[in-house]
Amino acid sequence: MTWDKDSIRYILSAVAPGAALLALWLAAAVPDAPPLAARGRPLPTASPILDLAFLDDRRVLALGQGTLFLYRLEEGGPVLESRLELPGEFLAVRAAAGVLKVSENENACWALTNRRERASLVAVEGRRLVLRLEADAIPWVGTGGGLRYRPGTNELVLDGDSFFAVRDDGLAVTTGGLLKIGAEVRPRRVGNAVDRLGALVVATSHRPPGGTDAILLLRADGADTEVVSETPLAATVRAVAAREARGGRVVVAALESREGETDLAVFTIPQTP
Fold it and tell me: What is the CATH number for 247?
C-alpha cells in the first residue's frame, strides 16, 4: 500500500513499547514520512484482537477473545465508549479466531469467537454495548444453519463449506488460503483478514504468523485479481476493517508483535488508485 506523509491520520497504541515499534513499522513502510508519535489511549486488553468492523463512519467494533469493544475514532486518538464481556465459559482451542457481522440499520452486531460456545447479538444504545440475545450460530441469509465455528478449530462453517474468514458481502477466505469473491474462488492466496474498500479488497498476506506480514490492496476485475499495492510490516496483522467515509478511505488494522503486544493502527488512503 502506498502511504504519503498525509495518509497517516493517527496511531493507536496498546502499550508504550508497542508504540515505538509501530512507529518503526510504519516509518519503514513510508520512508519519507515525518516522525510518528503514538497518540490516543491504551487498548484495555492484552488479548489479541480477532476481528474489526466499522459500525459507522466514526465508530469501530473490536472483538477480543471474550470481550467486545466499541471505539470512537477521534483526531486525538480512540475513545473507548463501551466494552462488554461476552457470555459463556472459555473453550480450549489451538488458535483463537472471531468474526463480527454488523447491521448498521439496526445499530447492532453479531459477535462470535471460537472461545465461546454461542454467538451474541449486541446492540449499541447511545454509547453502551448491550447484550440482546444468544444463538448457536450467526444467522446468515440463504443458509439454514447459519455461521459457526467447527468445534476446537478456527474454521468457520457456512452451508457445509469451511472458511478462515467470511464477510456478509460475499467476501471470504477458504481454508486453503484462497480469496473467494461471491461464488468464485480466485487463484490468489491471502491471509485470514479481509474486507472490502469500495471496488477494492484489503487483505493480509499469506505468510506464517510470528514473522513479517503485509497489507495488500487488491483490485478484482473480471477473472483477474491484481495487487495494487503491498505494505510490508514487521508484525502479524490479525484483523482489518475498511470503509469509504466522508473524510476519505479508511483502513483500521490490528497489529500483533512477536511479544504478543497488540497495536491498533488507523490510516486514511489517498484516492489513488
Answer: 2.120.10
| 3-class DSSP string for 166-218 | ECCCCEEEECCCEEEECCEEEEEECCCCEEEECCEEEEECCCCCCCCEEEEEE
The answer to whether the beta carbons of residues 114 and 92 sit under 8 Å apart is no
CA distance readout (Å), 242 to 61, 193, 253, 261: 12, 11, 9, 22
181-233 pLDDT per residue, tens? 998 999 899 999 999 998 899 999 987 766 688 899 999 876 678 898 888 88
How far apart CA 67 and CA 49 sit, in angstroms, is 9
Distance (Å, rounded) from C-alpha 217 to C-alpha 89?
Answer: 37
pTM equals: 0.84
Q: Within a domain: residue 2?
A: no
Q: Domain limits at 259?
A: 8-269
Q: What is the domain count for the chain? A: 1
